[in-house]
DNA sequence: TTGAAAGCGCTAACAA
DNA sequence: TTGTTAGCGCTTTCAA
């Protein structure tokens, strides 16, 4: 590294042109002759020069940064450690990078309640991607109402004044349940908290499938963690014995917790109890028996989230959108 | 949102004080009387005012941003989807937030080769935390040599001109292997690639333990993924039959892949083959049998990483440091 | 196709 | 304890 950090003006002097020319060249402005542009870019590289982003952000009123907020429910352990949420963050990172945008990672705790202020007024970011609706959409709504460019990963069917991208959770819940029914299950437990937006839709899909088959619903409402699932199923077994032959779990982590409880009691999967999860995380394939699951297309969703955010940044409006969903049939539900 | 975005000068006018007073008050400068400070802060809140970070960064030459780079090996699938790396990122996020720092997430792909330039010269961040040494430390070294404030999660024993924080991988490998030996295992396979810095240390710990016990080493070198482990163990079984009675896996994901291969062939865990993983990810507890593992203290490590980075930012130097490690004994290795 | 110059909003040195 | 003021490094309008 040189003794002194170069600035735009220095580079301009070196090249014998004006600062505006260098600025334009480095920003690929077609006003500048291609030849000049290339020459200046090369000079910049040679001298290890980089534009000062603070200065350009100040001047251009644009950051090219997107804040990503992991909006987990406080009081629950589902959080920064949830493999699925993290996978989504990873995919969003890729999608943003492809558009030349950077990712400022945040949890709702850091940003406080006033996202609009914290991220946007302060020019930390141009827009926000919220991962997870949480139980209480008040913060999101407030930000959207304040005019913040904002998109959400969640259940697209939720009425909202901001675009939500996510899976068709209703269909997912229905598919999983129909699959269990087709395998011969008669008493299918729904394992998860229907009060949560996305899970609520999955639950309604479950109910719809049961209804068609004249089967009876049975909910074990738990937090979205594997240990809650483990304890939930254990308690159910202790209280009522093996009163079910199928489980539709609201997530794979939950399904795996349930699986553990079953295996410990030598309840055979899928023979005694068939099991379907949701998310298709890496572990679904590795577990034994491997876990059937509803696969969400997080990659496609991430691209859409970024597209819709960009649309808003350009003053266009964007609508909620559903992405495809798919049943991955593995051992835990084969008959 | 108001029709016009307030700036510091507007707020100063509203309050009837100078801009410097407001600036100092909002930055909690003790020069300003506490009473005035509180009054101005409240006024700011009332008017939904936030300092323009671009402007303050430009002026103060400081971003309060730390770039976190996930430095996975290209060509390998271990990456943004690895639960352990992501857990580390999550912990780092928390540790940074506690110091009022923000986290710019990046993968090595986005930043390109010239980190110093991309993050530091461009004033995107004040410093860098690299998660994972990767197989080739050249990039990191170059950045460190260029004077970039930099810390790395990795193997602290690696000779380096930058501080590395991580577990005592040697002891971890030794502990795991000794535990398997104590359980009666005679032929323990090391499952992982010793060419990777951290894993290499684990391997040497494994060798040390074997050596003391006069046992023979047997390495199955694979990528750090569960599917590679699954195939690796399958191949070994096909080629040589059940020629081992213990596996020391270089990560939990790898251990779980191996476990799946064993279960599919009805090889009993831990009776026929005992198994210890590394990392203690959430799945270790959920799997069946539950997976014994070496737990790394990622929380402590994250705090240290941030501390050492801050030290460098303040012109002090910082040394590599080892964090404690612990064997979590579960079913996969009980006798 | 390029240059001159103003100014983005803040902080901190200096003055009071 | 507070105010005045210069200037951080860039982009962009206007002029040539």
TrEMBL record, chains A, B:
Query: Which Pfam family, any one, appears in the UniProt record?
Result: Peripla_BP_3
Gene3D superfamilies per UniProt: 3.40.50.2300, lambda repressor-like DNA-binding domains (1.10.260.40)
The HTH lacI-type domain, residue ranges:
6-60
Q: Which keywords describe this protein according to UniProt?
A: DNA-binding, Transcription, Transcription regulation
InterPro entries xrefs: HTH_LacI (IPR000843), LacI/GalR-like_sensor (IPR046335), Lambda_DNA-bd_dom_sf (IPR010982), Peripla_BP_I (IPR028082)
Note whether DNA-binding occurs among the keywords.
yes
Recorded protein name is: LacI family transcriptional regulator
Q: Which organism is it from?
A: Pseudoalteromonas neustonica
């Amino acid at each position: 590294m040189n003794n002194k950090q170069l600035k735009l003006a220095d580079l301009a002097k070196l090249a014998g042109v004006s600062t505006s020319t260098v600025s334009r060249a480095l920003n690929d402005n077609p006003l500048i002759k291609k030849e000049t542009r290339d020459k200046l870019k090369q000079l910049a590289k040679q001298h290890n020069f980089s534009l000062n982003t603070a200065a350009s952000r100040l001047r251009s009123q644009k950051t090219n940064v997107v804040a990503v907020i992991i909006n987990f429910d406080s009081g629950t352990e589902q959080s920064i450690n949830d493999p699925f949420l993290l996978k989504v963050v990873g995919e969003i990172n890729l999608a943003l990078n492809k558009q030349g945008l950077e990712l400022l990672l945040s949890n709702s705790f850091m940003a406080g309640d006033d996202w609009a202020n914290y991220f946007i007024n302060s020019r930390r970011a141009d827009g926000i991607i919220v991962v997870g609706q949480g139980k209480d959409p008040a913060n999101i709504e407030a930000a959207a109402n304040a005019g913040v460019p904002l998109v959400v990963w969640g259940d697209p069917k939720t009425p909202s004044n901001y675009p939500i991208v996510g899976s068709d959770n209703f269909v997912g819940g229905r598919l999983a349940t129909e699959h269990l029914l087709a395998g011969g299950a008669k008493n299918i437990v729904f394992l998860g908290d229907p009060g949560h937006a996305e899970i609520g839709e999955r639950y309604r899909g479950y109910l719809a499938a049961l209804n068609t088959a004249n089967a009876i619903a049975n909910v074990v409402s738990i937090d979205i963690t594997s240990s809650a699932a483990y304890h939930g199923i254990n308690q159910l077994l202790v209280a009522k014995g093996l009163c079910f032959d199928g489980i539709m779990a609201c997530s794979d982590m939950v399904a795996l917790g349930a699986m553990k409880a079953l295996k410990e009691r030598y309840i055979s999967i899928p023979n005694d109890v068939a099991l379907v999860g949701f998310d298709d995380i890496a572990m679904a394939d590795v577990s034994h028996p491997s876990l059937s699951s509803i696969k969400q297309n997080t990659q496609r969703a991430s691209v859409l989230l970024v597209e819709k955010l960009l649309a808003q940044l350009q003053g266009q409006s964007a609508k909620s959108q559903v992405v495809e969903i798919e049943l991955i049939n593995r051992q835990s539900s084969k008959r």
